[in-house]
């Protein structure tokens, strides 16, 4: 049976397995269950000695199996969600079970498709770079298909990761830049939220109110940029009236090199991602 036929027939009944039961795997499993993409009995993972992780997956109704090999044997789609430094050993250990009728997916940071495919012994692999807001269903994920992954495979993975946010498709050569922007980007925004709240406190607001306003303001601004289709510069101009408070604040940000600093942060993180993927 050809791989294309396999998934075309089994799309509505496929079973999903996670090798690695960390927070990202939990987020994806939770999104798949809550969105109705997959019922809990069709999802499995293996947890050896971490009661908190077992409790998290048990609470979703996901099957927790004794060994990684049991997860692979049970699954049609296998997601490797282990740390980058151990993904090679894990894939090689499971290689005899990673047959071509199984779609393999990796979310291990910095691990290239060519290596994953070599370790697995075939190229029906998809690499995905998600980010931590998957925990609240607002991920920005990007995927790239391996040599033998079909369009149907890509659609299945897009639907799965679409259950925890938005997903794009891009050439793997762009992945280091993607890591620098969406992978590391949430941390930049957390710093901005903290700084906005500190500014509110410095201006006389109670800490709790300042933090709530800062968080909601960033959320609202991001929603405006995402949903209105307007360029961020236009949205900024809509807020900044002549001689008003907003343009005074923007002037201070420009004097501090705010935009250039953010750009430099993305470029620095992308550079570091390239260094790590080559080591």
From TrEMBL:
The gene is LOC105127620. It comes from the Eukaryota. Pathway: Amino-acid biosynthesis; L-proline biosynthesis; L-proline from L-glutamate 5-semialdehyde: step 1/1. It comes from Populus euphratica (Euphrates poplar). This is Pyrroline-5-carboxylate reductase. Residues 172-276 form the Pyrroline-5-carboxylate reductase dimerisation domain. Its EC number is 1.5.1.2. One of its GO terms (molecular function) is pyrroline-5-carboxylate reductase activity. The lineage of its organism: Eukaryota, Viridiplantae, Streptophyta, Embryophyta, Tracheophyta. It catalyses: L-proline + NADP(+) = (S)-1-pyrroline-5-carboxylate + NADPH + 2 H(+); L-proline + NAD(+) = (S)-1-pyrroline-5-carboxylate + NADH + 2 H(+). Residues 15-110 form the Pyrroline-5-carboxylate reductase catalytic N-terminal domain. PROSITE patterns: P5CR. NADPH binds at residue 68. Belongs to the pyrroline-5-carboxylate reductase family. Coiled coil: none annotated. GO terms for cellular component: cytoplasm. NADP(+) binds at residues 19-24, 46. Keywords: Amino-acid biosynthesis, Cytoplasm, NADP, Oxidoreductase, Proline biosynthesis. It is found in: Cytoplasm. Gene3D superfamilies: NAD(P)-binding Rossmann-like Domain, ProC C-terminal domain-like. NCBIfam families: proC. GO terms for biological process: L-proline biosynthetic process.
